[in-house]
């Protein structure tokens, strides 16, 4: 008896289906897709460069054939072909005989090839145009979609990565091909499934339910084992197969628990299934983490609505991080190292959660493994978003199979703490005449509305999740909670009153007022790194923020094809900054606006994590962490993993220990109700400390008001030995500025938390007069010293947003901090990994417009 698996990765060739007489060409790699192969052979320009995206649109309307050859296996037993992923409408033939047709990119397919194998075998896969099939399905549909935001509406008919159709940050690149591995498996018996369901109860003891299913034999013995994180076997049991199934439940009184990064370690157990005696060749394993997950939705003291926060192992967690899109338009290019680099990027930025957005894919195992190992929680959307999907029997069956398949494959990952039904479909159903009534709980009524797809999110998916992943909560959509679905007092919200919503487009200074119980989207766009743009736009004449090519790399929707990104970015820059118009100046200024606005949101919303019964905001996830191509977008890091300035300001805002201040002008007295002149006002200053640690701390608090031009301290207050309460935000200051201090126009308010034992600043925050464009800053003398990888920087006058870089070799240095504000008497120390004593270049707001 035996089991053998061969990865079919050699001899692959491809060609256009409509040109049967042309020669096949070898693929660029395997797995692959058609764009990568055409690019490899120089048959198309790089769609990521210049404005080449438009020149490759024809590819998506053609059919393509992939072929490989392989010998007949020598191992005895039955043979199957296993396709991990085919994108999307594929017809598979083995030696001329059709063996499989596919219509879902997200589902692996397994097919018996008994009776088809020869001594030498030819495997052909024809990929038909997803665009043309989708358009025909849409044309034939009885009901047209009520809404579709981003991409062509035909995408709603097709179970393919929705972002391939284009989005407001990504290109339209309708690719196809064998995007995941293909295997030839020959066996007399094999472990067809290893299912692990772990439950951690309120006492933090655990049970691990293990089921192994064996194909090919119905009798025999399987050894089911649980191996501890230290490599020692915790428990093991030999189980006789019953109808091909072996099952055991392990109990662990004191498990080693998995925690999010910042709250504990990430120990991983291993579940093993191995055959005994004549089945000794069988082996399968999964790594798991033991954790308890709850979503707490309790009343908020003194406010309407309820909380929405995660509890991991009975510990309340403030979720902070960003939303994730696929890291490339061409998925086979993303290897395990790149996935890990992105997750490490998030962890270095003090993130503890990533939201996998519903217009992408169920990610590669390497992504989930990195999150498991590094302690990053995953909010996981099902792959549905921004559209009124059909609710035909065919489509609903597609979703059921897709959901069950992927939940079973991913259920063991401790990092996945939430399954979410969709991205923004409830929200758009609220805005259109869909007939959506949140109070109507009759699914048959839903099917009679113009949004019948509600049955997917509110019935089908919750039932599937309850059956297949009961230990992980389900949430119907994002945003979802109250009436309307984007109610800020219930569930999660997408906070887009800044940047989007044409009738609003509030200044980013409004962010403190735009919170919700859990903010799962918000953001500001910026340009990527200068070196990214210079390598992407190859014509020097087009290397300008207002060029046609630049517009091609900004995808935000607009009434005109060229105004969207440029208009919004320019407006926010012009409102807030004095800036120049060279490409380098535009990059810096746009990134500074993004950095200032988004960090203000994180600092302000974190303040609302006030403790039990007062979890007024319990999570902040920005849109978005990453890019799928070089572009103008909301990302914190561009396609090449180059951090924007916002990465650093948010990193500081989400540190374990943080401080914040805010000032406001308040009317105290008015001569009468007719005057507009005789009004008394005062400037109120409030300050707070925030800790994500579960341990208390003691700090000294120094708050200073400094003249914005000279840096002279005009007022200060100091408190020594102040207790920082664990895992909450605590108000520490609420005063009225002395009338002698012109606090609203000409002073910086700087707050520092200082370690009493060492005198080291452990957290700092600076509140500058707004908007920054009103400030005329003096030219400071900046002192900078470099010792290996350590940089010390200080200034004799205030400096706004100091950016440190190494010209010509930027990617070789990893900065622990950047985009820092300086005031006299507060030297900052930055570690620059890889600097090795080289010269550091400086840029700051005061000179960026010169």
TrEMBL record:
Pathway membership: Glycan metabolism; N-glycan degradation
Catalytic activity: Hydrolysis of terminal, non-reducing beta-D-mannose residues in beta-D-mannosides
E.C. number(s) listed in UniProt: 3.2.1.25
Family note: Belongs to the glycosyl hydrolase 2 family. Beta-mannosidase B subfamily.
Protein name (database record): Beta-mannosidase B
Domain of life per record: Eukaryota
Domain Mannosidase Ig/CBM-like: 688-774
Pfam family, one: Glyco_hydro_2
GO MF assignments: beta-mannosidase activity
Domain (Beta-mannosidase-like galactose-binding): residue spans on this chain: 12-180
Residue ranges annotated for the Glycoside hydrolase family 2 immunoglobulin-like beta-sandwich domain, each copy included: 190-291
Organism whose genome encodes this protein: Niveomyces insectorum RCEF 264
Keywords assigned: Carbohydrate metabolism, Glycosidase, Hydrolase, Polysaccharide degradation
GO biological process, one term: polysaccharide catabolic process
InterPro entries noted in UniProt: Beta-gal/glucu_dom_sf (IPR036156), Beta-mannosidase-like_N2 (IPR054593), Beta-mannosidase_GH2 (IPR050887), Galactose-bd-like_sf (IPR008979), GH (IPR017853), Ig-like_fold (IPR013783), Ig-like_GH2 (IPR006102), Mannosidase_ig (IPR041447)
Hydrolase as UniProt keyword: yes
């Amino acid at each position: 008896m035996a089991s053998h698996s061969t990865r079919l990765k050699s001899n692959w060739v491809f060609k256009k289906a409509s040109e049967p007489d042309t020669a096949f060409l070898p693929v660029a790699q395997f797995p692959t897709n058609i764009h990568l192969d055409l690019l490899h052979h120089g048959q198309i320009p790089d769609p990521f460069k210049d404005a080449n995206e438009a020149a490759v649109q024809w590819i998506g309307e053609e059919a393509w054939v992939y072929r490989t050859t392989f010998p007949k296996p020598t191992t005895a037993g039955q043979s199957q072909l296993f396709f991990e992923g085919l994108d999307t409408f594929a017809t598979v033939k083995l030696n001329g005989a059709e063996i499989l047709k596919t219509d879902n990119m997200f589902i692996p397919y397994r097919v018996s090839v008994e009776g088809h194998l020869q001594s030498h075998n030819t495997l052909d896969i024809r990929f038909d145009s997803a665009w043309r099939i989708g358009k025909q399905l849409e044309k034939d549909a009885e009901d047209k979609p009520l809404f579709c935001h981003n991409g062509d509406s035909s995408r709603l008919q097709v179970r393919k990565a929705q972002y391939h159709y284009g989005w407001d940050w990504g290109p339209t690149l309708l690719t196809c091909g064998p995007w995941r591995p293909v295997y030839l498996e020959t066996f007399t018996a094999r472990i067809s499934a290893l299912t692990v369901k772990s439950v951690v109860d309120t006492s933090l003891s655990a049970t691990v339910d293990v089921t192994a299913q064996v194909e090919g034999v119905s009798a025999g013995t399987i050894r089911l084992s649980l191996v501890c994180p230290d490599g020692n076997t915790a428990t093991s049991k030999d189980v006789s197969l019953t109808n091909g199934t072996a099952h055991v439940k392990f109990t662990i009184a004191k498990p080693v628990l998995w925690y999010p990064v910042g709250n504990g370690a990430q120990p991983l157990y291993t579940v093993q299934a191995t055959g005994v005696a004549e089945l000794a060749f069988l082996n399968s394993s999964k790594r798991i983490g033991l954790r308890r997950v709850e979503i707490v939705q309790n009343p908020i003291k003194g406010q309407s609505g309820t909380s929405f926060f995660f509890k991991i192992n009975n510990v309340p967690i403030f979720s902070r991080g960003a939303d994730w899109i696929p890291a490339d338009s061409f998925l086979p290019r993303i290897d395990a190292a790149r996935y890990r680099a992105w997750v490490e990027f998030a962890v270095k930025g003090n993130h503890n959660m990533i939201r996998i957005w519903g217009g992408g894919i169920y990610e590669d195992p390497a992504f989930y493994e990195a999150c498991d190992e590094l302690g990053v929680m995953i909010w996981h959307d099902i792959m549905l978003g921004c559209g009124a999907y059909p609710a035909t029997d065919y489509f609903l069956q597609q979703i059921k199979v897709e959901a069950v398949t992927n939940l079973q494959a991913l259920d063991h990952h401790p990092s996945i703490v939430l399954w979410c039904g969709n991205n923004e479909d409830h929200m758009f159903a609220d805005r259109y005449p869909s007939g959506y009534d949140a109070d109507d709980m009759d699914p048959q009524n839903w099917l009679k509305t113009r949004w019948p797809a509600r049955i997917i999110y509110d019935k089908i998916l919750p039932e599937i999740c309850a059956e297949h992943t009961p230990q992980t909560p389900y949430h119907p959509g994002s945003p979802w909670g109250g009436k309307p679905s984007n109610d800020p007092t219930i569930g999660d919200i997408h906070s887009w009153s800044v940047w989007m919503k044409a009738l609003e487009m509030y200044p980013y200074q409004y962010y403190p007022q735009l919170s919700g119980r859990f903010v799962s989207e918000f953001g500001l766009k910026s340009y990527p790194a200068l070196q990214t743009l210079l390598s992407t736009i190859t014509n020097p004449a087009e290397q300008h923020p207002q060029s046609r090519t630049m517009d091609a790399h900004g995808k935000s929707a607009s009434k005109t094809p060229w105004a969207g990104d440029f208009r919004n970015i320019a407006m926010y820059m012009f409102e807030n900054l004095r800036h120049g118009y060279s490409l380098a100046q535009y990059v810096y200024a746009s990134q500074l606006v993004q950095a200032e606005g988004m960090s203000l949101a994180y600092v302000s919303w974190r303040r609302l994590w006030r403790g039990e019964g007062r979890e007024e905001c319990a999570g902040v996830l920005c849109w978005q962490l990453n890019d799928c191509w070089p572009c103008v977008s909301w990302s914190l890091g561009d396609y090449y993993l180059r951090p924007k300035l916002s990465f650093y300001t948010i990193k500081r805002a989400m540190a374990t220990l943080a401080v914040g201040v805010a000032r406001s002008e308040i009317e105290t007295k008015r001569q009468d109700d007719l005057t507009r002149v005789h009004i008394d006002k005062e400037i109120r200053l409030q300050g707070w400390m925030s800790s994500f640690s579960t341990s208390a701390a003691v700090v000294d608090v120094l708050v200073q008001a400094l003249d914005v031009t000279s840096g002279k301290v005009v007022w200060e207050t100091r408190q020594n030995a102040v207790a920082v309460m664990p895992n909450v935000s605590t108000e520490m200051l609420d005063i009225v500025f002395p009338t002698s201090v012109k606090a609203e126009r000409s002073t910086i308010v700087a707050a520092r938390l200082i370690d009493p034992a060492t005198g080291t600043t452990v957290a700092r925050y600076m509140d500058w007069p707004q908007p920054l464009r009103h400030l005329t800053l003096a030219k400071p003398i900046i002192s900078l010293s470099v010792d290996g990888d350590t940089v010390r920087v200080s200034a004799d006058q205030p400096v706004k947003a100091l950016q440190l870089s190494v010209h010509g070799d930027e990617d070789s240095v990893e900065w622990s901090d950047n985009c820092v504000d300086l005031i006299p008497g507060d030297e900052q120390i930055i570690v620059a990994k890889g600097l090795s004593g080289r010269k550091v270049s400086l840029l700051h707001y005061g000179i960026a417009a010169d």
